[in-house]
Amino acid sequence: MTWGFLCDLLSGVNKYSTGIGRIWVAVVFVFRLLVYIIAAENIWKYEHDEFECNIRQPGCENVCFDHFFPISHIRLWALQLIMVSTSSLFVVFHVAYRENREKYHNQKPSESSGEIDGGLLCTYLISLILKAGFEIVFLVLFYKLYDGFQVPRLVKCDIRPCPNTVDCYISKPTEKTIFLYFLVASSCLCVVLNLSELSYFIFNCSTKRYLKKYIKKRR
């Protein structure tokens, strides 16, 4: 899988973002996307082959692996990145619709490039809510699926066709735990940035409405 689409998408949305939004894009690029491509994929690349149990009962090892890892960490992380990043598609679609409409009616652009106002503001707010929501949902999903964010060295499995309770060993548990903590920290940072940007827009809108009402009363 190539990640060029997400890179182009985030770069295109970046010019319509505030300073906080640009920090979010930088965090997604550097601390999540690049870390995923360069390091994380290699760590989880052979996780099934390196998962070993102290018994050679046919099918036991596969069943135990599927029980403790119903979804691979790395695939769930990739899905999280995709869902969070493509939430910005709403902004891209809105901008494309606005530009096509103005071109069709032979109108000059009503808003300067990079300015967020009117309907585009509502779309941008929706994308912020979706991004923060997806981040939180996936963090909860990670925690529930794997009973926390720490990868154990040893797990005990007693699921059929295993004849009794067997010990199974996970490869590179310390390294995987460090990357999971990094994932959680970067996700939490993105949630804070999304909520901060959302609060910034709400504060600005509230201030503008208050000033308009105040000016009308003064007149």
UniProtKB/TrEMBL annotation:
What InterPro entries is this protein classified in? Answer: Connexin, Connexin_CCC, Connexin_CS, Connexin_N, Connexin_N_sf
Ranges for domain Connexin cysteine-rich = 134-201
Topology versus the membrane, per the UniProt entry? Answer: Multi-pass membrane protein
Entry's Gene Ontology BP terms: cell-cell signaling
Its GO CC terms are: connexin complex
How far does the signal peptide extend, from start to end residue? none
Subcellular localization, per the record? Cell junction, Gap junction; Cell membrane
The UniProt record lists the Connexin N-terminal domain at 42-75
Q: Which terms in the Gene Ontology molecular function aspect does this entry carry?
A: gap junction channel activity
Reported function: One gap junction consists of a cluster of closely packed pairs of transmembrane channels, the connexons, through which materials of low MW diffuse from one cell to a neighboring cell.
Record's family?
Answer: Belongs to the connexin family.
Return the protein name: Gap junction protein
Q: Which organism is it from?
A: Heliornis fulica (sungrebe)
